[in-house]
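Thread title: Can someone regenerate the structure for this chain?

I was given the following input by a collaborator and told the matching structure tokens would be attached. They weren't. Posting the sequence so someone can regenerate them.
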Amino acid sequence: MEKSLYIKSLQVPKGKIDVVMDTDAYNEIDDQFALAYLLKSTEKLNTVAIYAAPFFNHRSKSPADGMQKSYDEILKLLKLMGKEELEGITFKGSENYLKDENTPVISPAVTDLINRAKNYSPENPLYVVAIGAITNIASALIAAPEIAENIVIVWLGGHCHNHKDTAEFNMVQDIAAARVVFKSQAPLVQLPCVGVVSSFYFSLAELEQYLKGKNELCDFLFENMVQYKNEGEIKADFDNKVYSKVIWDVTAVAWLLNDNDCFMQSNIVAAPMPEYDKTYSPNADSNRLINYVYYISRDALATDLINKIIKE
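Best answer:
Regenerated them for you:
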């Protein structure tokens, strides 16, 4: 790809675009917000596929179980939003993480991304919003590296580049996959977690005020946060403790809507390389550039998110 066209691919797109979302939807509560935000942003974003990503934590028994639960959660949200027609373009993803940087984990999601990306071009790319372990996307790039110039990857993963480490959940689950993406030729937008996206949070009281009772989707998102707050390691006294939650994944969708830097600010920087010791090092390809988001306009984005979610 010509450098000028590559740099253009790292800019916020103009006009209406096609988007696929890759999500570990059952992992937390933010994926549901992000998917709802995507589906409510039809003025610019045309959702052409949704992929279930693997995850493994206290909410799953294995990466495969996490992927299946995420797939089921996607279908649940589509039904809740009256978007059952999108079930036919929702695909199960990888059941395992990459065992190395050369062997893809083939799945229906990976196959769909490869086939779908071939219909796009550097001038008219497919935007891939990835908000989980990036196994599916890396697998597609390994199996069909030629699709790199036809897609733009927008990934919420890793921490800010000057953080002490990059042991962020999406990245640390599958560092091999992250390395594949960071050294690929695909244009990449990175939204780091700690130090950047960590500023995009809501208190429980805010969500109760803005969402509760507005519609069925709003009630689901609010009650989901209540349930998450009171489960497992993060259980707290609902009545007597202040509680807020970062709604991480919304920001990846918001980058696509970031006309005139209305929601965030970013720079074109040299791509780092995620290492297996959970640090960044210089990329072997010194010419590899990415768009690095470094600031979130919390209130502006929160306002747009809430206004779209409460609208029928």
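The radius of gyration is 18 Å.
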